[in-house]
Amino acid sequence: MAACEAAAAAGMAAAAATARPVVLRHAGAVLAAMTSGLDTSVPNMARVYNYWLGGKDHFAADRAEAARLVALYPPLPALARENRAFLLEAAGWAARQGIGQFIDLGAGLPVSPSVHQAARAVLPAARVAYVDIDPVVLSRAVALLATGDGLAAVDADLRDPAAVLGHQGLRAVINPARPVCVILGAVVHFLDPDAACAVTAGYASLLAPGSCLVLSSLDRFSA
Ligand SMILES: C[S@@+](CC[C@H](N)C(=O)[O-])C[C@H]1O[C@@H](n2cnc3c(N)ncnc32)[C@H](O)[C@@H]1O
Question: What gap in Å lies between CA 167 and CA 125, rounded to an integer?
Answer without folding.
Answer: 21
